[in-house]
Recover the amino acids of this structure.
């Protein structure tokens, strides 16, 4: 089982990540990694990411933090 991230602009266009990911063996490892580097990815031009398990899309999420009200 291999977990990978896809990095995208807001319109869904794939972009090269500012931080090169590895292939992860668990979903938890993949999510921990994104939690550590999301700001660098955002600064590097990615707006959102999508997680895949063996090529099957699991979910996507924005890298933009919601402003606290």
């Amino acid at each position: 089982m291999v977990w990978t991230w896809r990095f995208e602009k807001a319109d869904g266009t794939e972009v090269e990540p500012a931080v090169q990911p590895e292939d992860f063996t668990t979903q938890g490892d993949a999510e921990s990694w994104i939690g550590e580097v999301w700001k660098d990815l955002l600064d590097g031009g990615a707006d959102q990411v999508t997680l895949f398990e063996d090529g099957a899309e699991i979910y996507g999420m924005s890298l933009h933090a919601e402003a606290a009200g």
Observations:
- The longest strand covers residues 56-62.
